[in-house]
Amino acid sequence: MKKKSKPTCLAKIAKSLLTLFGLILLFFASFLIYFTAADNIDFKKVKADLITKNQTGLQPTSTPTSNKDIKQDYKNPVEPADQNQAQAKKDPLALEPREVDTGDWQTYRNNWYGFAVDYPSDYQKPKALKPQNKTDNYEKVYQFRKTIPKKQAAIGNQNQPTPDQDSETNRPDSEFLGFDVYVYNRSNVDYVEESDQVTKKQNPKQINCGNFPAFEEFPEHGVKTVLIPRDNYCYQQNYFYTANRSNYLYNVVAIKANPQEKEQAFQVDYALIVKEFPEFFQVGSGFQLIKINRPKPKPKAPIPYGAKKVNGKYVCGKKNDKPSVSKKNPEGHMDMQCCLDPDEVPNPWCTY
User: Fold this and answer.
1) CA distance 214 to 192
2) Which of 34, 149, 211, 282 has the most Cβ atoms closer than 10 angstroms to its Cβ?
3) Could you give the CA distance from residue 312 to residue 85 in angstroms, rounded to a whole number?
4) CA gap 102, 281 in Å, rounded
5) Model confidence pLDDT, tens digit, residues 175-205
6) Is the backbone of residue 139 left (phi > 0), alpha (psi -120 to 50) or beta?
7) Every domain of the chain and the residues it spans
């Protein structure tokens, strides 16, 4: 019987190389099949699935413009709230305040300083206050506060109510107590950046801040808004309305509840106003400058005791008055009957 010959060393090596080559071919074939299948995805179906998910509360991070975008958005849907927050960081004005019914609002008119402002009917009666500190630059501040419980909380040196739940109006908790109208005399504060509502950051490099960031105007009322974003390198963030005339400057400011420091009361975030205090936009945009009408100062002279008062005016009570020189009083004495004689000085209370 013939013996089988054992395989030589060379034959073993050839067999191993052949097996390795086969494995490499199998790997490349699998790789090619995978990417060919990926390119044949029905992206119309995927896009339809995205629309369905969007209607149930999910939406892509951006509008898909290519197959790559669709793949990415299909894998990572984003909640609408997250998208709004991301957009708000890029553009603070991307958020829109909800509509507010102003049908029952009241109008406050101040003839002394010449302004008018609308405010909700459930607010407290406006209060006028003088400066509380030597560092305050305003001449007068008018406070408009929400109707809230009697419990009080301090803001700076002023006693302010807390933003607790209001049992009378069912107003929810809020970061804001209401708003203030600050009046500045332009002989002291000529520009809005000099007012108390603007806080300049410490700037060791002394960068030139350029023009102040007022961005929107309401020409029919002479009002403009001031938006200072959080990342402004010159000023602390804030959002308020401002107007001016030849002798006065006015700032309409949303007032936060319980700031840790007095300066923080004027560091208001636009997005927070949109969320917590949407009526502030109606207040500020409707602020108006009106004619200054101040009553004439009362005379310092004594009120005439022998005169007749007709329609609120002091007049001579004598029907047939005949002016003559007084024999009792010295020349130049004050007329006390509103019947002027040649040696008398006219009384400013009298109507001659």
Assistant:
1) 10
2) 282
3) 64
4) 11
5) 788 999 999 999 999 999 899 998 888 765 6
6) alpha
7) 17-78, 106-289, 296-352
Q: Which amino acid is at 141?
A: V
Beta-strand relationship, 127-129 and 158-161: unpaired
Q: What pLDDT is recorded for position 169? A: 37
Residue 158 has pLDDT above 90, yes or no: no
- Going by DSSP bridges, is the β-strand pair 313-315/248-256 parallel, antiparallel, or unpaired? unpaired
Token pair of 209 as six digits? 């801040």
**pLDDT (tens digit per residue) in 127-153:** 999 998 888 999 999 999 998 655 444
* Buried-state track 25-58, b at ≥16 Cβ within 10 A, e below 16: eeeeeeeeeeeeeeeeeeeeeeeeebeeeeeeee
φ, ψ at 142 (rounded to 5°): -115, 120
Q: What is the residue whose two structure tokens read 């990926």?
A: 38
- CA 168 – CA 189 distance, rounded (Å): 40
In the numeric block, which tokens belong to residue 231?
């990342």
Confidence band, pLDDT 50/70/90 cuts, at residue 34: low
Rounded alpha-carbon distances, angstroms, from residue 79 to 43, 58, 159: 22, 5, 41
